[in-house]
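User: Run a structure prediction on this.
Assistant: Running it now.
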Amino acid sequence: MKVHFAKELFRVFVLCSLILISVSMYGIIDEETARTYFTQALEKVYAGDFKSAYDLSVKAMSGRIYVEELPYFWYLRGRLAIANGLVDKALEDFRNFTLLVRNDDIDNLVGKVNYFRKLNLGPSQSFTMGYVDSIKGNVRGIEYFQTPTSLTVYGDNLVLLDQKNKRLVYFKNNKMLKIRKISKDVKQVFYNRDGNLYLLGNKSLYDEKEQELLSDLQVPYIAGADRSGTIYIVDFDRVVKFNTRTKERSNFKLPQRTFCLDAEMTIDRIYILDALKQKIEIFKLDTLEKVGEVSLAEKVWSFEVTPYGDLIYLGKDKLVAGGKDYPLKDVDFIEYSYPTLFAIKWKGNTVEQYTFKDDKPILVNIQDVSFDENSAYAYISVEDLFGDEIHYIKYALSMYEHDIYVPTDIYAEQKDVQHVKVEKCSGELVSYRLQGVRVVGNCPILTKFTGSVRNSDDLLSKKVVWIAKWVYLKPVPPGIIKLSAKVAFKEQIYYDTMFYTQKMVLDSVGKKKE
């Protein structure tokens, strides 16, 4: 007991000493000057200059700080230390601070460090399922779609194929935008990672304007696309790879002829459901070498896979995942955009939406904040552990000011991808993830877990970010306003914390008026 108390007392002494050292190094500054440095640090963060931002955050803590704002200063300095690779130093500073004051935002940030220092990519032990919403083909006697056979999402957009009536139905955040007739016989719709829509027919692949891109297919099924946008099509006894930018195609032979009912992809595997064998066969994505298979206890028509390789398949009145059953009745087939499950029911012409979430964390990152005369805008990335964007997530995403929910318009947009090139592995993964960059070069681990590819020429130029728009506080108080972006599924909550200040609002509005 006495030893523990002595250690705690020593930590407090160290904390006080650090503050005194900072004061002696930079001289005493007053509270308003500290706020000015804090604002400048934020502006550098949002501009992507993390080194200058960190230096300014250190300078901001070199003098007097309003007591109620001290956790904000400490959090920002630690966050920027992590982004600059000073992870152990940040963790030690956080330990010293939280000896005196418990802080949920610091705990959350430390949790993110632990995510990436101890990556758990093993099979999920549990899934969370919850109803979200539904779209209906018949509304007040008007028919919009009938027996849908395929759907695809990108950002907050959803496209549904009404194969029988040869039409595409477009939705945005579950609100129908338009219905478009098509002339081709299409059996599958697919959004690529660049946001372009593709249509797969019985023998050909088309773009959204129905221009033929690939022909001479036999019984094709799109499994997905890799990070460069190359589409993978399972076709009888082969996998066809089609580069959407160069229009080049290549064929890879499968070990045997396969009647493919369904096919899915992760970042390094392709999964094929063979109707004759009633098995899901698993192949390496780069070499198409077979690495495993899963025998199914019952007849399965439709399956999905999480980014981490957990299989989800549709049984009789149930979903099966991780060896557990989840009730789901009268469903004809499923589509999945992690972590949103779409249950397609021909009876009633309905598409129901559910969260179907594993036990892996989601990384939320506020990357930028801007203002006009009426509204604030936060630019938020929502990604899985591999750094790939999560689509159709608006229903779970919300914004808070000072921990109070603010009514928010949330929508998805494409934003330029920022990337860094490395010649060898250096630094920690969490540092790159907090910077929101994608790593190219000679470090497979950093490339794999930042949503990237090895060669910058193959890297897509855009990615999906979520923009939250709300009416900010007026008049803007002179202090620091805390922002939180949260993604919540029942008891699972993932969030990020950043800030804005009065000066940032005035400067941003002033620039827009010029």
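The CA atoms of residues 43 and 504 lie 8 Å apart.
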